[in-house]
Specification:
With 288 residues, the chain is of the alpha/beta class. Helix content is 42%, strand content 20%. It has a single domain, classed as TIM Barrel. The chain has ten helices and eleven strands.
Length: 288
């Protein structure tokens, strides 16, 4: 069964709006609410912890936080702390970060792929409870082990758009996050790169893929999606619009190409975010 969720967009919503959104999502039985961390807006880990504290059943995804901003030991501590407090409800994701922003804070990596390989590999080992020693280009650890390890490590997602990054995600991460605005055919092509990396690493089974998909419900839904993604957006499923039943039909086309979780991202100009969340809850009910 395809997992369903919604996006809390840090460009459209200030941090103090998160609590109300979480409460609506929880009441509407939205299974997952996904956040992300862009410079210089809202802390991903602080927001995730708060959202989990304000809910009982809602899973919170972080798709994504930029790898270069934190030492991998700090990232492991953040994730482990949240996982211990709210077991099984946090889905952390990591990515290269926007290079111009990373340069602004003196954290731009000459080789973002090397950074991702070193950090994600070390992070997963730390979350597994290992004592980690590493001497790489970007990660240096000497016998580091979490003093408060997790009973069961949460899945670590990676994100990217290029073929090399997607293949690396398939090789080293537990799952991959894909951006919105892609058609099912384009998503299928990107999943192919993830599979290539997974197969090259000798990993069995299919990759776990989360795809953000632009969506709009109610009056003016079609216009909002086409304004964001072009006149042909609805014809090629670059975004989904209409009733929950119509959106479910579009979600099926993403599931057919290998998407495990469709996270509905409100189209720009969404006039009623609580209503959007309630519609996503209905979509989740129909899918289940």
């Amino acid at each position: 069964m395809t997992r369903i969720g919604a996006v809390f967009n840090p460009y459209h919503h200030a941090p103090e709006e998160l609590r109300a959104a979480v409460q609506v999502a929880e009441t509407a039985a939205v299974p997952e609410l996904w956040l992300w961390e862009d410079c210089f807006r809202e802390s991903g880990y602080a927001s995730a912890a708060a959202a989990l504290a304000w809910s009982e059943n809602l899973r919170i995804g972080l798709g994504i936080a930029p790898l270069p901003l934190r030492n991998v030991a700090v990232t492991a501590m953040e994730i482990a702390t949240i996982e211990r407090m709210f077991p099984g409800r946090f889905l952390p994701g990591l990515g290269h970060g926007v290079q111009s922003w990373m340069a602004q804070v003196g954290a731009k990596a000459t080789s973002p792929l090397t950074l991702m390989r070193e950090q994600v590999t070390a992070l997963r080992a730390l979350l597994a409870g290992d004592a980690v020693t590493a001497s790489g280009r970007y990660v240096t650890l000497e016998g580091v082990r979490l003093d408060w390890p997790v009973a069961s490590a949460p899945p670590v997602y990676a994100a990217g758009q290029g073929a090399k990054t997607l293949a690396l995600s398939g090789e080293i991460a537990d799952g991959t996050v894909l951006v919105s605005g892609l058609t099912p055919a384009e998503v299928g092509e990107q999943i192919g790169h993830v599979r290539t990396g997974r197969e090259a690493a000798g990993r069995a089974g299919e990759p776990t893929v989360v795809a953000y998909v632009t969506a709009a419900f109610g009056e003016g839904a079609d216009a909002r999606v086409t304004a964001q993604h072009g006149d042909d957006a609805l014809a090629v499923d670059r975004g989904l619009a209409g009733s929950p039943v119509e959106v479910v039909a579009g979600i099926a086309r993403f599931a057919e190409v290998g998407v495990d979780a469709v996270i509905l991202d409100p189209a720009e100009g969404e006039p009623d975010f609580p209503a959007f969340l309630r519609a996503v809850g209905e979509v989740a009910r129909l899918v289940s």
